[in-house]
Amino acid sequence: MSTDEIVDPTIAPSDQFRRFLLHIGIPVAGVVSVIAVIAGVGWHSYRTVRTGALALTHDLLVSQQDYIAKEVSSFLMPASAGAIVARDMLEHGAPAVEQKIFNAYSSTMLRNVPQIQSFYLADSDGNFSELERGPDGQGVAVTTLQNPGTDNSVFAHEQRDAQGKTVRQWQTPSKQYDPRGHGWFTDTIKAGREYWTHPYLVEMTRELTLTAAVPYKGLDNKTYVYAINLSLDHLNSFLNSLKIGQSGNAILMDHDGHVLAGHAMKETLARANGDPLKMVLDPSQFPVMSKAFDQYRVHGYGARTVRVKNRNYVTITANLPVGTDSWVLLLVAPEDDFSRFAMADGRQNLLFSILVVLMASGLGFLLFLQARRSERMHRQIEQAHAVANYESHALQSVAAYPELFNPEDNALILTEALADQSLARRAAIWRILHDGHTLMCIDSYDRQQDVHSGGFEMATTDLKSFFDSVSHGDALVIASAADDDRTSAFYRVYMRAFGSRALFCNPILGSSGPVGVITLEDAPRAEMVSHFVDMIAGVAAARFSAQHYTAVAAAREELESEPTAEEEPRDPSQGFLLQPAAMTAEGQPPATDMTKVDGFYPAVAIMVISLSDIVMTAQDDPTANIKLIDTMAGILQDIAHQCGLYSIRMLGHRVVCVAGCSRVPDKGAAYRMANAALMMRESTLSMLAKEDMDPVFRIGIDVGPVFGGMLGKEPQAFNLWGDAMGMAEMMAQGAPDVGTIQVSEEVYVALRQNFLFRERGRFFIPGVGLTRTYVLAGRR
User: Fold this and answer.
1) Beta strands in 97-137 (DSSP E)
2) For the chain, which terminus, N or C, has the lower number of CB atoms within 10 Å?
3) Which residues cross the membrane (predicted)?
């Protein structure tokens, strides 16, 4: 049971609710009410000021629009009125003085009306005259088309000073210029009245020009057109000079959306490549004006508010009469240009309200935190009492275990209590063996699967950093064991196969220093129950001490009572991996009478190591496979020599080891075989870990009588058969996990004083019946 699930039944739910309501609910509700009132008043004030400011903005902009419309009309009026006056003068003048009237009137207009650029006079026969400002605005320049309609037509130029005196005369090719082919002439004749053209590009000056023209009939019955040209540069400068708020703009357009003059005229002209018919607003460059013109097309003239890029703009579209036609005057300005003071006042009031709300919210939040902290501390105290009671019960359960300090009992309750208290995925107790170079797992408990395992051994050669930390008695709290230099090897060999990540290590201290370590994997409450882990470490240290003295006494007693047993002479041909002890001078094995080895052997220890096919297919390179198997064979051979085994053979995917092949029962055979099994398992695990491979073997051991004898012709082969051979193979095949050693009940009875075992249960074995099997965990 998790400590987070512990509930104190003495606390009634009604008391908890009432305490929460008094300490948190009512104060927080009061603060929230004050905040709501302040926020409501501030927002209402802001909205009122903003509404008034917008109304004021519209009124101011309408007044501004009236002023600008009058100014634009005044700018255009001289051209419109002057064209009508000139028409009346020329229409009733004699043809002989027509050119003089044109020159005199136009020169006077140029001197007095700065926005006028030039004057045209053309008739239905193709005659054409132009009067414009002289260079640098001094005097006038008169251009007359001579010989119109012929290949010899030329422009005759005459420059006059301010007093009317001719300064210079010259001619230029006309390139067959005909005024009757231009829009200002043909459209005016077609309209039959005063006509304003769209902006067009003058061929001679390459400037955009706007023309006001009137037609009339002369006394000579010819049709004439008198035109006054306004430079769009002057009109643009005039519109851009108008003050519309602080950052507003004005633009003049026709009803079809063509730009005539105003804001960003140069950019618009550049995008249109000088073509006036392509001079329209680009929505990507002028989103506010484009949106305002679109609303005009839908709703007509008037003042409106548009929002672009999170900013409000006030727009007004007004009708601008020009002669008998009309244009659209579009004004755009940010709404805060006219009402900045009011908006600033409203924002300031809103800001003050927000500051008051924030301060009240902060005080309310502090009050809430204080109440929550008080409530949390109250719950933590209650939970601490419950946890202390729970730990007390757990310690009582451990202390009440009858076999707690019995060296022959596994005391599985210790790892279960550790995992339960720390919520660890797996808890294990490790012991540092008396050689000081080996760390052995006494018991490991998996809380999720509710299973125990043990018997894992690790040497300092493979886990030096981890072993040094354990030997020095350091407590380790590591969130990622795979990434820490001290525990990366331990993670690779022991933790990775189970999928755990975090590691907590607590030393087990004996009289002379650390004698072991407790490991908790993925334990979120490990540090909170460290005192409980220390108490369990003390119990484990006492058990280690008792196991040591019991094992020493049992070993001495057994050695004193053990009779001398002599193994049969070894035949070099029988140990497939075991080399002979001696050779003759000729390199041949010594002569032995192998007929003497035939017969019955009462107590032979047999171990079978069953290898998985993964070993054979671990790598794609056959040479690497053979090298891996050869390395493993050499390691097993060395251990067989070191432990004094009689024979070791590799048969396919099995390795068979024999010890105690003698006529008299050899009580030390099982001990040597178990010792060899632990060493072989440790060395094989280390080798596979270096190759980044998981364990791929299982080991089985049995002790019993067998028959042996020489079979076949020369060279004969020595063979053993009997129940012990089959039982050892069944122990290997039925081992619970890879890398474990399963033994029969006979082996357990013979070695329980010297080794640690974990019972697996009772199993039915054909030919034998019900029997118990055990897992060899390690040495005592």
Assistant:
1) 116-123, 128-133
2) N
3) 20-43, 350-369
Same domain, 105 and 83: yes
Both tokens of 579, joined, read 């080399």
For residue 694, being part of any structural domain is answered with: yes
Which percentage of the chain shows pLDDT scores above 90?
9
Model confidence at 455: pLDDT above 70: no
Q: Are strands 697-711 and 741-744 parallel, antiparallel or unpaired?
A: parallel
If asked whether residues 343 and 473 sit together in one domain, one would say no
| Whether residue 572 sits in one domain with residue 553 | no
In this structure, the answer to whether residues 546 and 650 fall within a common structural domain is no
Q: Is the dihedral of CA 55, 60, 65, 70 positive or negative?
A: positive
pLDDT tens track for 1-43:
444 444 444 444 556 666 666 666 676 677 677 777 777 776 7
* Residue 495 covered by a domain: yes
Q: Which domain holds residue 80?
A: 1-126+178-388
Identity of the highest mean pLDDT range in 236-245, 386-395, 398-407, 649-658: 649-658
Instruction: Give residue 285's pLDDT.
Output: 82
Exposure string for 7-25, b = 16+ CB within 10 A, e = fewer:
eeeeeeeeeeeebeeebbe
Q: Write b or e for each residue in 427-440: b if 16 or more Cβ atoms lie within 10 A of its Cβ, otherwise e.
A: bbbbbbbeeeebbb
Write down the pLDDT at residue 557. 56
Same domain, 423 and 374: no
Instruction: For residue 286, count other CB atoms closer than 10 A to its CB.
Output: 20
Look at residue 399 and tell me if it is in a domain. Answer: no
pLDDT tier, 154 (very low <50, low <70, confident <90, very high otherwise): very high
CATH number at residue 336: 3.30.450.20
Tell me the pLDDT tens digit for each residue of 720-737: 888 888 889 888 888 888
Place of tokens 């808890």: 427
Is 743 among the domain residues? yes
Q: Which CATH number is 654's domain given?
A: 3.30.70.1230
pLDDT in tens, 512-541: 778 888 999 999 888 888 888 888 888 888
Look at the block and give the residue holding tokens 């390690």. Answer: 778
Q: Name the residue among 76, 133, 129 with its Cα closest to residue 322.
A: 76
Q: Is 558 helix (H, G, I), strand (E, B) or coil?
A: helix
| Tens-place pLDDT, residues 32-78 | 777 777 777 767 776 777 677 667 666 766 777 777 777 777 777 88
CA distance 16 to 376: 12
Domain identity same for 375 and 429 = no
Q: Do 551 and 578 share a structural domain?
A: no
d(CA 417, CA 721): 46
Token code pair at residue 431: 């012991």
Separation in Å, CA 667 to CA 517, 672, 677, 720:
33, 9, 17, 19
**Sign of the alpha-carbon torsion through 749, 751, 757, 763:** negative
What is the four-CA torsion angle of 30, 31, 36, 41, rounded to 10 degrees?
100
- Two structure tokens written together for 366: 């502090």
